[in-house]
Amino acid sequence: MATSAKPVLHGYFRSSCSWRVRIAFALKDIEYDQIPVNLIKDGGQQHTQQYKELNPMQQVPAVEIDGVTISQSLAIIQYIDETRPGTPLLPSDPKKRAQVRMISDLIASGIQPLQNLSVIQKIGAEKVQWAQHFISRGFQALEPILRETAGKYCVGNEISMADICLVPQVYNAERFKVDIEQFPTIKRLNATLVEIDAFRISHPSCQLDTPEDLRQP
């Protein structure tokens, strides 16, 4: 497929959904521009009329690519995979592809939204306990699934969209002080993945909008 201008990612350094897209771009070796959307400053820049016109859901990420705007990280990742060469992000085998989508959806729909900033802000003083409960609950389901599907990575021995979803979710779990030791398969996979360049360069600690006190030394 012929492409012209570089994609533009509207995202936030700490957003796990934005991080997923950054990982996908890195794995595919795709150059892109970033426009930071600060989810906290001025009441949240995602609520501006300008951004609402770009993404009516007022969430990140949103990607302008090939003349269209796509929101929802899994839709973006799958579009990238279908239109760009390089590392495949979904297996060709239908069963493995279904497993990748299952794991990705479990994280993206069953775990991550429950510790989304807009949800946490509504919870108030109990936000840490809330996040810990739902992350742990999700990981208790994810751990036995990964024991069945994993090789070196989440599904077999090839990196996929499932791995792209896993690493940011483990990062969130660690932020909320969830004990990862009780999930040995998740811990093992994450330890392998975070050493891969695409995951390292896309990390929240080294983005354009990362605050100075949170940047990698």
Automatic annotation (TrEMBL):
Location of this chain's protein in the cell: Cytoplasm
Domain GST C-terminal, by residue range, is 93-212
Q: Which key words tag this protein in UniProt?
A: Cytoplasm, Isomerase, Phenylalanine catabolism, Transferase, Tyrosine catabolism
Q: Name one GO cellular component term.
A: mitochondrion
Needed cofactors: glutathione
InterPro entries reported for this sequence: Glutathione-S-Trfase_C-like, Glutathione-S-Trfase_C_sf, Glutathione_S-Trfase, Glutathione_S-Trfase_N, GST_C, GST_Zeta, GST_Zeta_C, GST_Zeta_N
Identify the residues that the record assigns to the GST N-terminal domain, covering every copy: 5-88
Name the domain of life: Eukaryota
Entry EC no(s): 2.5.1.18, 5.2.1.2
Reaction equation(s) it catalyzes: 4-maleylacetoacetate = 4-fumarylacetoacetate; RX + glutathione = an S-substituted glutathione + a halide anion + H(+)
- Metal-binding keyword on record: no
Q: In which pathway does it act?
A: Amino-acid degradation; L-phenylalanine degradation; acetoacetate and fumarate from L-phenylalanine: step 5/6
One Pfam family hit = GST_C
Q: Which family does it belong to?
A: Belongs to the GST superfamily. Zeta family.
Q: What is this protein called?
A: Maleylacetoacetate isomerase
| Species the sequence originates in | Mugilogobius chulae (yellowstripe goby)
Q: What does the organism's lineage look like at the top?
A: Eukaryota, Metazoa, Chordata, Craniata, Vertebrata
